[in-house]
Every structure is written in structure tokens, then in C-alpha cells.
Amino acid sequence: MMEKKHCWLALGSNLPYGGMEPLQVIEAAITALQDAGLDQTRVSGLYRTEPVPKSDQPDFINCVITGKTHHKALEILDICQSIERIFGRERSTRWGARTLDIDIINYDHQIYPSLDEWRAVADHVDVSTDMPKLVLPHPFMHQRAFVLRPLCDLVPGWSHPVYSRTATDLLSEQPEQDRDSVVAVEVK
């Protein structure tokens, strides 16, 4: 059996599904990920964030979870996409409103598929449809306060495998307006 690998996932929701509000969708998705084999799970705080890029869609509820798994990275991607579909995710509009979004932001500090391919994707905001199925670490996570803030809740000293910068450093490099737009949600 393969040794368990550490995995970090970013979750977001800004549309209700099946009678659940986005916060409840996130909570149910975390349970589904645990049921699918993400062990020793830790969950960041929950945050309300504006959509990126800015649009008139509702605000998102975001968090980051960490855990260990026997699944390979591509298997985790398939599990995440399957869970997204269970919660009504439709991939009709890039960066549109969604019931659930689950991104692998890091898997065992791997760079995948290669450093050159990672850089080619990360350097282009308008990614073409020719993008590899999986890119690790997430090619835009280092630019997203709504990922970095919850990541700092769990592992502020985590070091980006390409930039060798900590989560705290990457968050501090975000524009103040972006950092301030990530607002903690009190769960009752």
C-alpha cells in the first residue's frame, strides 16, 4: 500500500444547492472528502470573499482543508470533481458562480506535470483549454488571498514548492484590498 501523502484543498461555494446554503454545502463537502479517504483532516476558518475576478455574482464562502490520503494526485482530482458534481457543479462558465469548487492547492509538495509546464500555466491568467488536467501546486493559489488566508490558519509556514515563499509571505504580498476582502465567518 502506498504511503499516505499530505494534501491541501481549497473549497468555495457561492450558490445554494439542495436546500443548503453555501456554508452548509462546504461542510457537507468536507464530510464527503473525509468519507472518500482524506484522513487526519484539519479545516481552516471559513471566510466570506468577493468573486475573483470581480463580478456581480454572490460572495463566496471559502476554506482550506488539509489531510493525508493513500490516493494519488490524479485520483484526488477525480474524487474532488465527483463531489463537485454530487453538489450540482456545472462547468459552463469559467470563474462563474458555482455550488461547489474544490481545488487541489498542494499535494505532497509536488510540482506537476513539470516545472516548465507549471510556469507556462502560471504565467497565463487566461488559460487555454489545452491546460493539463492537473497542475500542482495550483498555478494561481499564490495570487489569491482567499486561498492564502485560510491556508495561513493551518500552516502559515508552508513553503510554496516553486517560489520557496511561505504562505504568510505570499499573503503579505497580496494587495491590501484583496487581503481585507477575506472576512472571517462566524459559525453558529
Low-confidence stretches: none
Write the CATH homologous superfamily.
Answer: 7,8-Dihydro-6-hydroxymethylpterin-pyrophosphokinase HPPK
Let me know the number of strands. 6
CATH class reads Alpha Beta
What's the number of structural domains? Answer: 1
What's the CATH topology label? Alpha-Beta Plaits
Key traits:
single chain, six-stranded antiparallel sheet, Alpha-Beta Plaits, alpha+beta, 188 residues
Folded structure, characterized:
The protein is of the alpha+beta class and 188 residues long. It has a single domain, classed as Alpha-Beta Plaits (2-Layer Sandwich). Helices cover 30% and strands 19% of the residues. The chain contains 6 helices and 6 strands. It has helices at residues 22-35, 73-86, 115-122, 145-154, 167-172, 176-180; strands at residues 5-13, 39-43, 47-49, 60-69, 101-107, 183-184. Strands 1, 2, 3, 4, 5 and 6 form a 6-stranded antiparallel sheet that branches. The longest helix is centred in the N-terminal third of the chain and has 14 residues, at 22-35. It is globular, with a radius of gyration of 16 Å. The termini are far apart.
